[in-house]
């Protein structure tokens, strides 16, 4: 039997205009996912240089999709035609859903949520953060509409990985959470899990301590980077080892998530090892900077 079309499904299908804030690795990925789902996407970048890099990322990812037979050339062109870019956050005023994908830094995200609250005209619009570990409640309270704020957490690479974590705060309206889950599921074609507003949600609460343990193992000279990664790929059938995965996520992001988890839990397994801090300070951020545990 066909699944019942609920009022929330109808509301999710009616979301045609999506805003994405930030066009780093995740912002560009979210723009691609929404554009491929037929949505009109407006990406707000903080500067012209970031905007150009984001556009380039999006184009390269769609080209990769075509090369691998996942996207037709016509769909690629249609998706590209649905995405526009701006450096003016105020251009997001007519959006029905905004996905915030700025760097994992609380002052930055608080400032953006305050600004979005002033800018987005539709009081029924949903303001979602792709944060991995910051408090949804604190972001919600930066706005005058905490019932419309929640976490929608995607995974890197967003066009490929099927999961979205839907994270409501204590103040998120149930209806907002259900519409957002329907949007991720019925519109974007993702699989959804619900998680509470605790640092790391489900995936990062489990993943980050593992990645940090791999960095500590490497730092101690216990095993070579290649052998740590090979061991987890071949011994546990993971698609990539922990150090390569840290490079993919971005070492600055891994460190920021570790710091946020530690702040909340005070668990030693969440503390960022010195080597990771030094790499981040040195601009060795993994794939996006060309050098991390590996060279790209
Ligand atoms: N659009 C659609 N599909 C695409 C695509 C695109 N732009 N690019 C690649 N694909 C598809 C490919 O066709 C392929 O599908 P298939 O298996 O059905 O043929 C699949 O994606 C894998 O692509 P490739 O074969 O080219 O690449 P690999 O096999 O080397 O896989 C990888 C690359 C997907 C990155 C894989 O190694 C992987 O899944 N790694 C783990 C990634 C991971 O764990 N990410 C989560 C990080 S945590 C996170 O993001 C949370 C944050 O808060 C930190």
Describe the structure.
InterPro entries: 3-OHacyl-CoA_DH, 3-OHacyl-CoA_DH_NAD-bd, 3HC_DH_C, 6-PGluconate_DH-like_C_sf, 6PGD_dom2, NAD(P)-bd_dom_sf. Pathway: Lipid metabolism; butanoate metabolism. The record marks 153 as: Important for catalytic activity. This is 3-hydroxybutyryl-CoA dehydrogenase. The chain has 296 residues and is of the alpha/beta class. The chain contains twelve helices and eight strands. Strands 3-2-1-4-5-6-7-8 form an eight-stranded mixed β-sheet, sandwiched between helices. Helix 8 packs across helix 11. It binds 3-hydroxybutanoyl-coenzyme A. Residues 61, 64-65, 68, 70-71, 132, 155-157, 159-161, 204, 207, 239-240, 245, 249, 253 line the site of 3-hydroxybutanoyl-coenzyme A.
Q: On the 0-100 scale, what is the average pLDDT? A: 97
Biggest sheet layout: 8 strands, mixed
Percent of residues in helices: 40-55%
Bound molecules: 3-hydroxybutanoyl-coenzyme A
- What is the string of helix and strand elements? HEHEHHEEHEHEEHEHHHHH
Describe the global form: globular
Low-confidence stretches: none
Question: What percent strand?
Answer: 5-15%
Query: Rg to the nearest angstrom?
Result: 19 Å
Name the strands of the widest sheet in spatial order. Answer: 3-2-1-4-5-6-7-8
Enzyme class: oxidoreductase
Site (Important for catalytic activity): 153
Domain 3-hydroxyacyl-CoA dehydrogenase C-terminal: 200-296
GO molecular function: 3-hydroxybutyryl-CoA dehydrogenase activity; NAD+ binding
């Amino acid at each position: 039997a066909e699944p019942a079309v609920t009022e929330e499904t109808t509301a999710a299908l009616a979301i045609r205009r999506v805003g994405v804030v930030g066009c780093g690795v995740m912002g560009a990925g979210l723009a691609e996912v929404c554009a491929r789902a037929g949505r009109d996407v407006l990406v707000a970048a903080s500067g012209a240089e970031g905007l150009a890099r984001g556009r380039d990322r999006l184009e390269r990812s769609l080209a990769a999709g075509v090369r691998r037979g996942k996207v037709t050339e016509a769909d690629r062109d249609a998706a590209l035609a649905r995405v526009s870019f701006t450096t003016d956050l105020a251009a997001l005023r007519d959006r029905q859903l905004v996905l915030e994908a700025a760097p994992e830094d609380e002052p930055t995200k608080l400032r953006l949520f305050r600004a979005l609250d002033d800018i987005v005209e539709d009081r029924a619009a949903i303001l979602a953060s792709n944060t991995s570990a910051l408090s949804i409640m604190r972001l919600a309270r930066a706005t005058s509409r905490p019932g419309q704020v929640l976490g929608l957490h995607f995974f890197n690479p967003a066009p490929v990985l099927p999961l979205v974590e839907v994270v409501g705060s204590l103040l998120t309206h149930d209806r907002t959470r259900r519409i957002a889950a329907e949007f991720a599921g019925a519109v974007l074609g993702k699989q959804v899990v619900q998680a509470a507003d605790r640092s790391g949600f489900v995936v990062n609460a489990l993943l980050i301590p593992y990645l940090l343990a791999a960095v500590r193992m490497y730092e101690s000279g216990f095993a070579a980077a290649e052998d740590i990664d090979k061991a987890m790929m071949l011994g546990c059938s993971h698609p990539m080892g922990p150090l390569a995965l840290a490079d993919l996520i971005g070492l600055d992001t891994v460190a920021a998530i570790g710091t946020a988890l530690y702040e909340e839990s005070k668990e030693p397994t969440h503390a960022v090892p010195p080597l990771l801090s030094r790499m981040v300070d040195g601009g060795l951020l993994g794939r996006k900077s060309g050098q991390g545990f590996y060279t790209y």
